[in-house]
Protein: ST8 alpha-N-acetyl-neuraminide alpha-2,8-sialyltransferase 6
Amino acid sequence: MRGQHVKSFFSFMITLLGLGTLITTLIWYKLDSNHEEPHRPPPQKKHAPTLSEICKACKEIIDKVHQRYNQTWKKNEKNYLRFRDNLRVKCNGFDNAIITQNNTPLGSNIVYSGEKKRTLQVKLDFFDLFSKENPFSNKKWDTCSVVGNGGILSESSCGKMIDSADLVIRCNLPPLENGYEKDVGIKTSLVTANPTIFFNKYGALAGRRLPFVESLRKYGNSLLLLPAFSFGMNTAVCQRAAYTIQDFKSPIQPVFFNPQYLDSLAQFWRSEGLKEARLSTGLIMVSMALELCENVHLYGFWPFSNHPYGLYTLTNHYYDDVPPKTVFHSMPAEFDHLLQLHTEGVLRLHLGDCKSDEK
Ligand SMILES: *[C@@H]1O[C@H](CO)[C@@H](O)[C@H](O)[C@H]1NC(C)=O
Structure:
């Protein structure tokens, strides 16, 4: 009798452990957490893991993904056009994703996307920083790479393939040099910045600003997308970032997220069944890319803690293992939608290493 109690106690504890790991996996998000100085994460092991190393629940999740993930992917033009046109009608990121002097005139009121009660009347100081024309007009791109920052990119050798796209979109000022090029590439057309980086790494841009300017050099003359109107606390620091870039004559071009677009996009994804409060930067960039490019390829989007093929443990980002401080997004829920779009042939999600992909 007692033996049985002990046994069921143990199986209960094991179940608890399994659940704990599963929950940790489920709440991890990859893109919006701030990061410190990019230290290269310890090399990840590629040996075949022993059973005890693999979390059983993770394995089940990964198996489910494999059942849905098409290895031999083919674009479905009809599905792509349907999805893209739906986005164009409901969100029109092409004209609205970025604030321009045209879509946000002098004297108009900007409503913050993260604080609905906060507004800002556009005065000359900001108006002068707004893009004079739509940076996307008169351009057409065949292929886009959207690069998430997931640890899945480590040792992926995807750099060349990422850089071969006409338009390369990156998230949250990621490191690209010092050995990362091979896996993530170096070309950048558009990069987003999370203001947390300005606060944590560059002293809120209140003191010396040269280190910040130098850190932008690797992104060349790309667009730097700033969320100045998400929360009130981000406005001044994003304005300082834009001033810094202009004053130091850095070739990167600061532009601002249009909160109206972010609202319409949140509504769009809610209507697609995504229940999350806030969209991740990665999903926003994927949505933009679907309007801008005929062929959208995703890299570094993988919200689980184990590699989909090797099953070895992954770091949180390809450049560090810093876990998120707060949990805003549910990456697995977003990933589920991206996987769905992949199976429908709307976009292509890259989960394997690129060497074997190219065969
Ligand atoms: C993926 O596989 C499913 C089921 O076999 C199929 O219906 C779908 O068309 C495939 N998608 C692509 C993009 O190849």
In short: Residues 19-37 have pLDDT under 50 and may be disordered.
